[in-house]
Amino acid sequence: MQRPPSGRGDRRSPAPTQPALRFAPSPNGHLHLGHAASALLNATLAARLNGCFLLRIEDIDLARCRPVFVDAIVEDLAWLGLAWEEPVRRQSERFPAYRAAAEPLVAQNLLYPCFCSRTDIARAVAEEEARTGRTAPRDPDGAPLYPGTCRGFSPAEARARLAREPHAWRLDGAGARAAAGPSLAYARFTIDGAEEAVPASPERWGDAVILRKEVPASYHLAVVVDDADQGITHVVRGADLEAATDLHVLLQRLMRLPTPRYHHHPLIRDEAGAKLAKSAGSPSLRSLREAGIGPDEVWARVAAALGVTLLA
Ligand code: GLU
Q1: DSSP state string for 242-304
Q2: Whose CA is nearest to atom 10 of ligand 1?
């Protein structure tokens, strides 16, 4: 099967006008066919658009990410025949940049400190559900929206607790939407190049965590900051992240960052129709390799599952 032309050895950084795409795995397990789908689509589109293909390691979750999985990602992608522009970005090296990027949001009172533990939140949600007799609203990932416990603290109270308690920083969702103004939207593109505008509904994420308690970053903040910093023009990722785009578009507007175009590809499912996941023990690319399956077969399976032609 024909592959996108190799960019290896070509050390360009994307010029401001050049299309740039990235594959951004989290090294908390081995890559499976779903990751291969994202990687192959990104590389294919980068080649078609004569753009850059970048690899970004999203390893801000220090408790779950492991260097051994970073090495395995590089090995698996090379086995697939992919090549990417150097350097490979590691998000764990960029905490000061994420913290600095959040500063203007803090200065505008769009973030507030949250001292709640998971247990505190679960308790507050359970109490609210008992009081109202209704299930509390959930975000698109199924987690209850933050009940707002820490939203109303006076500046003096917040300051006093900030000095002595671990805390996250949450977006004041309503304030942030008011500050962003109307017409939040992004362009969704298809593999054959069609585009349409999609309205964004960030309210479904409530008061999302922007800086976590354990590290001064969150997936949402880091992805938005890095996509802008790396000049990413086209984001290609799985459909499980489509809803997150609504929040990303809000953050981009607030932080005056460009909004890339987005394509969310269907998730690759196993024979029983379940989403592939590391946690569900889905076969990794390396276990397929050990079973004698070659990279061409992986390309073919991905192309068939997505219903696309993966040619440069
Ligand atoms: N790191 C994310 C993941 O592995 C992907 C992030 C993105 O593509 O925006 O699911």
Answers
A1: TTHHHHHHHHHHHTT----EEEEEPPPB-TTSPBP-TTTTPPBHHHHHHTT--HHHHHHHHHH
A2: 25
**Interval 57-103: pLDDT, tens:** 999 999 999 999 999 999 999 999 999 999 999 999 999 999 999 99
What distance in angstroms lies between residue 221's CA and the mean position of ligand 1's atoms?
12
* Tens of pLDDT, residues 223-250: 999 999 999 999 999 999 999 999 999 9
CB within 8 Å of 227: residues ≥ 6 apart: 22, 235, 248, 257, 260
- Distance of CA 40 from the midpoint of ligand 1 (Å): 14
The ligand 1 atom nearest the CA atom of 237: 8
Low-confidence ranges of the chain (pLDDT < 70): 1-16, 276-281, 311-312
pTM for the complete prediction?
Answer: 0.92
Give me ligand 1 centre to Cα 263, in Å.
13
Give residue ranges with CB within 6 A of ligand 1: 24-26, 58, 223, 237, 241
